[in-house]
Amino acid sequence: MTTTTTTTTSKSAIAVNTASMSLADRAYHHIREKLLMGGGLAEGQKLTQESLAEEFGISRTPIREALGRLASEGLLERDVDSLGVKAINRVELEELLLLRQSLEVLGVGLAAKRATDPQLRELRMIFDHLRTLTRELVRKSLRERQGELGDQLAMTDMLFHMQILDMAGSPRLVKMVTDFHVLTRRYHHHMFRTLPNLARVLLEHWRIMRAVTRHDAKASQRLMRRALSITRRRVLHFYDQEQRHRSAPPTVTDFSALRDRLVELSGLRGSLAEDDPSRKVPDVSDRRRRRRRCRSRDSE
């Protein structure tokens, strides 16, 4: 196992040095990083001690301790005798987003007052990277925005917010908001799918950075509150869309199967089969001759 876990792509204080930690602590930070970064872990996915122990090259005992710690923090959930990535419902999602908004508004106000010049330069570097990624994504298709480049933008966006919280000088604040990101990260990727959202997010970040650089705490808090309010509404909108899509009836693409089912229900099996040689569409002239014969018999 490596000895350094970095939960961001920055050299900020968010990076965690695991060299002097116990195996259980190191396993905890590595698994937590996988949850934060995605790491191929989906909601509800089961985590086994055996596979994680093999991946990290350590025994199952520290893995078990790490998983128990993550479960106690609410990042994993128990299901009978196993642990899985926690899935959240709409009420929980909205609550997490509101809590995140409150904490980040508090954090950006402290950051505006306490930020040092080196920290502000770091924030500017992150914003410049965010702008570069945004410009690249603007030229991409929707599918490409949902790929690796879109993931990079989502992580850079999170790094921007974590850097501000780091500037606030409160490690506990960073830890709490990072936990919220672990639980809600999969829904934030939707924010970068459309061009209007890309433009809006970039402009919001620039305004927040400018206010923090000017050490204007009130303006920083106002801008952060507005930005995260919009984010909360958009994330909940995407969540509702996803739930409606899941509950919608499946689209029929196998029309032969649909036809067979209709035939079965109507009791006409075989008569509508395409390969039935007895199936024949009556000729219009035949129907007219039969009607004339019937009228002639009636007149007699």
CATH first level of the largest domain: Mainly Alpha
Tell me about the biggest sheet?
3 strands, antiparallel
Average pLDDT over all residues = 78
Shape: extended
Order of helices and strands: EEHEHHEEHHHHHHHHH
Structural class by secondary-structure content = mainly alpha
Tally of distinct domains = 2
Q: Mind telling me which CATH architecture of the largest domain this is? A: Up-down Bundle
In CATH terms, the superfamily of the largest domain is GntR ligand-binding domain-like
User: Which oligomerization state do the chains in this entry correspond to?
Assistant: single chain
**What is the rounded Rg?**
30 Å
Q: Unreliable segments (pLDDT under 50, ≥5 consecutive)?
A: 1-14
Beta content comes to under 5%
- Helicity range of the residues? 55-70%
First-residue to last-residue Cα separation: 103 Å
**Helical segment tally?**
12
**CATH fold descriptor of the largest domain:** Four Helix Bundle (Hemerythrin (Met), subunit A)
What can you tell me about this protein's structure?
With 300 residues, this protein is mainly α. The protein folds into 2 domains: 4-85, Orthogonal Bundle (Arc Repressor Mutant, subunit A), CATH 1.10.10; 90-247, Four Helix Bundle (Hemerythrin (Met), subunit A) (Up-down Bundle), CATH 1.20.120. The chain is 68% helix and 5% strand. The chain has helices spanning 23-37, 49-56, 60-72, 90-114, 117-138, 142-145, 148-167, 171-188, 195-213, 217-247, 255-266, 284-299, and strands spanning 4-5, 16-17, 46-47, 76-79, 82-85. The protein has a 3-stranded antiparallel β-sheet. The chain has a two-stranded antiparallel sheet with strand order 1-2. It starts with a strand and ends with a helix.
